[in-house]
Recover the amino acids of this structure.
């Protein structure tokens, strides 16, 4: 059984992959709410597993009621192995403890890293006690693995590839072959896929794009996908930099539309100052698109290598981001080499890797 607050496309990818890889097992997905409190994605169901929703989206439950309903769902499903996200929520912690008392194997799904934010020694000491119900974990990055090890979970019980996707879904929705095939090099644009919030560091990305524009006679366009509280401020910043003819705000788009945009993208930019993982990075790699990402992004641990399939920069490095934008926009041979370099990483980022991690944890129970 797998639990998330709400099921979007990537959650369905992973549950479907587990169900296909373990056909003799019954796979159940449990979501708390019928719609996400963070993303405006269309509710997803999947084809190979059963999904159940605990709340109707109107009623409000306290932590005890939520925990009780989550435990009841695990009992009704007959689940021996339960994978839980949102371990920081009291309701999930209570549910995890009760499930352990019921002799269920409880696993943590985590992409947090120690470097996400300033840490308090006392809070981290409490977390070390907080994770005692979990017998294993699947994490999003090398730094997530190190963080859990710091909190006391045995490295032998931690698996990688939490934040993976269906590469086949991305490519099917795109409607064009992955780069360097498909859309011509000269017709491609830059892309940002991100919530428009402070930690995504979008003003730095826009400033770097402005610097790139100032250095070329024929700049490529920048398309920004996402919504959030900084929408109007970012639009005003673009106007102040005289970039309105080069920047398009696309708003929040469903997964298929984002895949189609990645099909005509030259480079994905993700310059977050805080980023537990960064799903857009692996989605871009699935379409053969090189990436320019900040070293804060968890995805860069496993899936990005500078000079191989993109470049890693410091989150505040406007000059560095602009430099790489200019190089990739003008050097087709370099771009094609980096595009070809995405192949192995895209295969590794496929949801089957998550399914294999689930299989290893549950087989050793």
């Amino acid at each position: 059984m797998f639990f998330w607050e709400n099921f979007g496309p990537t959650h369905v990818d992973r549950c479907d992959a587990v169900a296909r890889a373990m056909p003799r097992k019954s796979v159940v997905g449990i979501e708390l709410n019928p719609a996400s409190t963070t993303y405006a994605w269309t509710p997803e169901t999947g084809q190979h597993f059963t999904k159940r929703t605990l709340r109707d989206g109107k009623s409000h439950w306290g932590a005890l009621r939520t925990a009780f309903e989550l435990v009841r769902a695990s009992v009704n499903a007959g689940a021996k192995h339960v994978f839980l996200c949102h371990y920081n929520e009291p309701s999930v912690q209570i549910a995890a403890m009760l499930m352990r008392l019921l002799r269920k194997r409880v696993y943590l799904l985590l992409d947090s890293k120690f470097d996400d934010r300033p840490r308090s020694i006392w809070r981290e000491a409490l977390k070390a006690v907080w994770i005692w119900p979990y017998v294993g974990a699947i994490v999003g990055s090398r730094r997530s693995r190190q963080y859990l090890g710091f909190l006391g979970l045995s490295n032998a019980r931690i698996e990688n590839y939490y934040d993976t996707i269906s590469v086949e879904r991305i490519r099917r929705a795109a409607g064009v072959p992955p780069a360097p095939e498909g859309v011509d090099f000269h017709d491609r644009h830059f892309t940002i896929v991100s919530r428009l919030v402070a930690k995504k560091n979008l003003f730095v990305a826009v400033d770097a794009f402005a610097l790139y524009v100032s250095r070329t006679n024929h700049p490529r366009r920048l398309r920004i996908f996402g919504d959030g509280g900084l929408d109007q401020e970012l639009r005003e910043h673009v106007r102040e930099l005289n970039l309105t003819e080069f920047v398009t705000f696309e708003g929040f788009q469903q997964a298929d539309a984002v895949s189609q945009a990645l099909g005509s993208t030259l480079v994905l930019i993700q310059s977050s100052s805080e980023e537990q993982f960064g799903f857009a990075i692996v989605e871009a790699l699935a379409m053969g698109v090189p990436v320019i990402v900040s070293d804060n992004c968890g995805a860069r641990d496993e899936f990005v290598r500078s000079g191989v399939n993109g470049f890693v920069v410091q989150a505040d490095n406007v000059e560095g981001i602009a430099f790489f934008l200019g190089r990739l926009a003008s050097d087709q041979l370099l771009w094609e080499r980096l595009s070809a370099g995405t192949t192995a990483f895209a295969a590794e980022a496929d949801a089957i890797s998550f399914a294999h991690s689930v299989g290893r944890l549950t087989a050793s129970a």
Q: What stands out?
A: The chain has two domains: 2-166+350-363, 167-348.
